[in-house]
Design goal:
The protein is α/β, with parallel strands linked by helices. 38% of the residues lie in helices and 20% in strands. Helix 8 links the parallel strand 13 and strand 14. The N and C termini lie far apart (44 Å).
Amino acid sequence: MPTSRRRFLYTSSMAAISTLVLPKYLSEWHGANTLVTGLQLYSVRDAMKQNPLQTLQQLSEMGYTQVEHANYIDRKFYGYSAKAFKKILSNLGMNMPSGHTVLQPKHWDSVKKDFTKEWKHTIEDAAIAGQQYVISPWLDDSMRSNIDSLKSFMDVFNKCGILCNRWGLKFGYHNHDFEFKEIMPGTTIYDVILQNTDSNLVIQQLDMGNLYNGNATVMPILDKYPGRFASMHVKNEIKAADGKEMYESSLLNNGIVPVKEAIDYGKSKGGTHLFIIEQEAYQGKDPIECAKENLRIMKDWGY
């Protein structure tokens, strides 16, 4: 199907969706003009596994008001239903504007041309929990083995954008490092993703640290695709100690990434309003203390 025809169908679908009454679960949102700083809970994953309530209370006491989940299993966030988890956060003065759940090939029924019940529940629970964004943080190997498979799955991404819109949500994708490797001469996986998804249906969450292991840097990507990055993972990188990768994450003010400049550029060039702190390696430090220090750094930078 020609691109113009596909875009027309998506636009028409969105217009139809806008006439529907949105579900009662939707929470108030401050909009894309409000800058938001939060924490990806994978940063404190062990603590969340051991005692999610205590960990969230500690984060709240530090000053965090926004979190992004990395644990949705059997229709539960960290062991709690969507409604219960939203209440826990609300009682602590916190919100969850986004969360990570992988959209896999198995979630799309190519025969019925529809999403599975499991994936529809994912979107419904995200809305109940008060999310604004459903972010898929991985791309299955089978979808990046050749350019035709990748383009085909980007069509599923766009369809998921339509599904999310029905619940008043946005669908998005979060990068790692493999996206910046060529899938064919002169074209990277990330180029195919950005060039074959509708910006009205699929937002990008740019992880400013992950891409360094793919020999990429932040500013050229923002220049190439301005306004596509509603969300960013704020992260710094140092040389990896274990040697498995070139770099590992560190405190925001310690590493090779020009984090403050990247945040500022995201705000002015990338269309970014949601800045999510993430640290996955700690160099012997306590992850909870790292989360506290990273929030202090962000506040010193004015975020």
